[in-house]
Amino acid sequence: MYRTLAAVLCLALAASGCALNPFSTGKPGSSSGHGGAKPQSGSAPVLTSAPPVAPPAPGEEPAIVAPPPAQLPHERPRVPAATLGPASKALVAQAQTQRKKGDLPGATVTLERALRIEPSNPLLWIEMGRLRMDQRSYAQAEGMGRKALAMSVGDDRTQSQAWQLIADSLRARGQNSQAQQALERSKALSTF
Predict the structure, then answer these.
(1) Global confidence as pTM
(2) Other CB atoms within 10 Å distance of the CB of residue 102
(3) CA distance 148 to 136
(4) Domain boundaries, the chain
(5) CA dist., res. 48 & res. 142, Å (int)
(6) What is the pLDDT of residues 137-163, one digit of tens each?
(7) Sign of the C-alpha dihedral, residues 142, 148, 151, 154?
(8) Within a 10 A sphere around the Cβ of 157, how many other Cβ atoms?
(9) Which residues contact residue 185 at a Cβ distance below 8 angstroms, ignoring those fewer than 6 apart?
(10) What is the DSSP letter of 38?
């Protein structure tokens, strides 16, 4: 039933002259495709095809234009050095005072408060790693140094401090060759 209805509609449109040439290449109002008649206002827009592409000459291969290769940066992008916010700075100062007095559990609680304020600040992770070194938790100190390293890409000064922490933790565990490599990385970053 629907097929016959669709066929009748198509025939009616074709017979009444309302069919549009969907691939007309002329602009509305031009003589190509519509017999010179200008479309009336409110009429359907004329669809146009893409401009023709000239085929290659006989014996010639078609030219393929590739986009230019992406330029890789020669250096890592530099970012500003990490800094502590005012609240974190006050908490770090308090934790350092607690460390000097030998109150390592109190310093841990204070630094954890600072980390809740700025969890993605690599300087706080380095400070917590130094505290872990004082607590003789060398593997944890290395982990915190590596976390700070990952958070400070492009910040040479902070990365240098993180590599120094990693070197200290490796040396404390007797991994001297790895510690030396980490120390060399720290020194290389501190020269910039």
Answers:
(1) 0.59
(2) 9
(3) 19
(4) 86-190
(5) 65
(6) 999 999 999 999 999 988 899 999 999
(7) negative
(8) 15
(9) 163
(10) P
Fold of 86-190: 1.25.40
| Parts of the chain with a pLDDT under 70 | 1-57, 59-77, 192
DSSP string, 21-34: -TT--SPTTSSTTT
Backbone angles phi, psi at 43, to 5 degrees: -80, 165
25: exposed, middle or buried (Cβ count in 10 Å: 0-12, 13-18, 19+): middle
Amino acid present at 131: L
Residue whose entry in the numeric block shows the structure tokens 């910039």:
192
The residue type at 178: Q
C-alpha 110: how far from its chain's center? Answer: 33
Q: In whole angstroms, how far apart are CA 51 and each of 26, 46, 63, 168?
A: 11, 15, 17, 68
> 129 CB contacts (<8 Å, ≥6 apart)?
140, 141, 142, 143, 144, 145, 148, 165, 169
Would you state the structure tokens that stand for residue 7, as one six-digit string? 């066929």
